[in-house]
Amino acid sequence: MSDADLTRDELEDVRDVFDLFDFWDGRDGLIDASKVGDLLRCVQLNPTNDLVKSWGGTEKTGEKQYSYEEFLAIYKQTKNVKEWGTFRDFEEAFKSFDREGQGYISAAEMRHLLTAMGERLEDEDVDEIIKHTDITIDLEGNVKYNDFINKVIAGPPMK
């Protein structure tokens, strides 16, 4: 994917986010590799932590730095990933906790799934997801997981 494959808006967004992180990091034209995942998420991509690491992101600050051009290459690579998980992948994960096979999981089990398995989320992140998906918890404390999955895949509502 060349620069010509990206829209002007995409290039401007990537540059703006890079410059903002560079500003916070000392204005030297470089961003720390530990911030690569954060930058990608700021430009509407959603890579896994493993994917970020495989493309040069680090956990520790100060190990490596990237110029704008180097980060742009990582952005293009991430943008080319077409699938971050399908509805079926997520549905299978939730189904294993659906004891009655009715399409519901307890809200507590859902929170446990999100905070203790796979790429673990923090409680605050789960609270934010629940807030933005506006899920309904029934009188028995259960959530219809297909609705939840669809809302998460759709992403946060645009304002």
From TrEMBL:
Keywords, ordered alphabetically: Motor protein, Myosin, Repeat
PROSITE patterns found in the cross-reference section: EF_HAND_2
CDD domains: EFh (cd00051)
GO CC terms in record: muscle myosin complex
GO MF annotation list: calcium ion binding
SMART domains: EFh
Pfam families: EF-hand_7 (PF13499)
Domain EF-hand: 85-120
Domain of life: Eukaryota
Record-given protein name: EF-hand domain-containing protein
Annotated source species: Elysia chlorotica (Eastern emerald elysia)
